[in-house]
Design a protein that fits this description.
This protein is α+β, with helices and mostly antiparallel strands. It is built from 18 helices and 23 strands. The strands form 6 sheets. It has a 7-stranded antiparallel sheet with strand order 4-3-5-2-11-10-12. A 6-stranded antiparallel sheet has the order 6-7-8-9-13-14, covered by helices on one side. Strand 10 and strand 11 form a beta hairpin. Helix 4 crosses helix 5, helix 5 packs across helix 6 and helix 9 (about 275-285) packs across helix 10. The longest helix has 15 residues, at about 275-285. The protein is globular. The two termini are about 15 Å apart.
Length: about 475
């Protein structure tokens, strides 16, 4: 997150995971493996990518704006020698684009080189930065990740591990970190495990990634998830050590990973993302049935839930919308006119399937409502007799402050309208969302535990599991 623009107002209608991280230690072609791993995590960040490697004596970095395949090729990867490398894909934020914010970030500390790749958001970064600047720290980026580097650099503990733990005890929020030093690699998750991180093995090498799909692509074996609050150290001999500096608080991993962020072929906390999304569709069919002729997904994110809805309801599944895969992300287009035109280029109605039919449209979420409105309109223009919208998540009523790119609350449709008004806004014949308990059932829980929820679901409930120091100070309504 860009800490000079904390209230990021995404110019679009989807929640976006802002980062993906990958790291490997003990492989001869570490940078090549990292590039392949990042390619499989491209859905988590499409504006910038960076890789840093360690050759045994020196750190080497290459960063650029664009996709992995645009920034890295055999020639650039040859400039990143060594058996250890880490990488990062990200979305740029308002005021936060440009190479100075592209990770991994690197600094020469008194203890040696220190590289860090970060997925998440430090919710007290502005407060910490203000104190650090007053004490003489000089920042080179506007990223909250750099705050961690300065906290490590200024810690008075003797060892690098203790300095790192000291720094993490001062930060709030959600994070998954992969750090490299001349002693090896450190990977950790925030105490609640809000952001995901998994560990695997390829040959004798140890790998870390935001999602298991990265292991599938490089041929690595999944070992386990890095536990919430766990810090895993791996040295160049392959020795793995685990530290738990935060005790054992009750985990609160992000439930939206199951709804949308993760690739369907990933496994998250032992649960197939694809199967969870199908199950959400089944729960939605039980809770919000409709008389219709066909079930149509909004591609691609609505497909698994639509399959589940069709299976449970007995209504045929059809591809009534065809997506072009050669159009950029809707949310990065500036201005409403350009964004709406982009929706039409990205999705096209399959008139032969839609015309004269009562249809159930399945999508993963409604944020601003603009995309949903355009797709409903597209279905009507294609001759749909009725359009019933069903959403595979509860209403998104609150902003996320843990590394997800969301609009401020005043721009969230569900924060300003009830469901009936939302249906009228998007011009659907009916609208329904899966319940919060239905979502929990879909991921294997009997229901949401109100006193101590099993997941972070703040975007739906407003129940934030950590302090929001910067935002409380600014007087922002979450």
């Amino acid at each position: 997150m860009n800490i000079t623009h904390p209230f990021r107002d995404a110019d679009g209608d989807k929640l976006r995971e802002e980062c993906g991280v990958f790291g490997v230690i003990g492989a001869q072609d570490a940078a090549n493996i990292t590039a392949a791993g990042l390619h499989s995590l491209q859905h988590r960040g499409q504006e910038a990518v960076g890789i840093t490697s360690f050759s045994g004596s020196d750190f080497h970095s290459h960063r650029g704006l664009g996709h992995v395949a645009q920034v890295f090729n055999p020639r650039t990867l040859d400039t990143l020698p060594g058996s250890m490398a880490s990488g990062h894909v990200r979305y740029s934020t308002t005021g936060g684009s440009g190479l100075r914010n592209v990770q991994p970030l690197f600094a020469d500390l008194a203890t040696g080189g220190f590289s860090i790749a970060h997925n998440g958001n430090i919710s007290n970064a502005m407060t910490l930065k203000r104190d650090l600047v007053m004490k003489g720290s000089i920042f080179q980026s506007t990223s909250d990740t750099e705050v961690i580097i300065h906290l490590v650099a200024t810690s008075r503990y003797p060892t690098l591990l203790d300095k790192f733990i000291d720094a993490l005890r001062m930060v709030e929020g959600g994070y998954a970190l992969i750090c490299m030093t001349d002693e090896g690699m450190m990977a950790c998750r925030d105490p609640l495990g809000i952001r995901p991180l998994v560990m695997g093995r390829i040959g004798e090498a140890i790998v870390f990634a935001s999602e298991t799909v990265a292991f599938d692509v490089i041929g690595a074996e999944f070992i386990r998830a890095v536990e919430p609050g766990e810090l895993v150290q791996v040295d160049f001999k392959g020795t793995i050590s685990s530290h738990r500096p935060f005790g054992n608080p009750s985990p609160r991993p992000c439930i939206f990973e199951h709804v949308y962020f993760s690739r369907p072929d990933s496994v998250m906390d032992g649960i197939s993302v694809y199967e969870a999304r199908k199950q959400i569709g089944k729960e939605l069919a039980k809770e919000a049935p409709a008389s219709a002729d066909i079930v149509i997904p909004v591609p691609d994110s609505g497909v698994p839930a639509a399959i589940g809805y069709a299976q449970e309801s007995g209504i045929p599944f059809e591809l009534g919308i065809i997506r072009s895969h050669y159009v950029g992300r809707t949310f990065i287009q500036p201005g409403d006119a350009a964004r709406h035109a982009d929706v039409k280029r990205k999705h096209n109605a399959n008139r032969a399937i839609v015309e004269g039919k009562r249809i159930i449209l399945i999508d993963d979420s409604i944020v601003r409502g603009t995309t949903s409105m355009k797709i409903v309109e597209m279905m009507r223009d294609a001759g749909a007799a009725e359009v019933h919208m069903r959403i595979a998540s509860p209403p998104t009523q609150h902003s996320c402050f843990y590394g997800v790119d969301t609009p401020e609350r005043s721009k969230l449709l569900a924060a300003n309208m009830d469901i009936e008004a939302m249906a009228a806004f998007i011009k659907a014949d009916s609208l329904a969302f899966v319940s919060i308990d239905g979502l929990y059932r879909a991921v294997g829980e009997p229901k949401r535990a109100k006193k101590c929820p099993q997941f972070c679901d703040a975007c739906f409930t407003g129940d934030y599991p950590t302090k929001l120091t910067d935002f409380d100070v600014a007087g922002v309504e979450a």
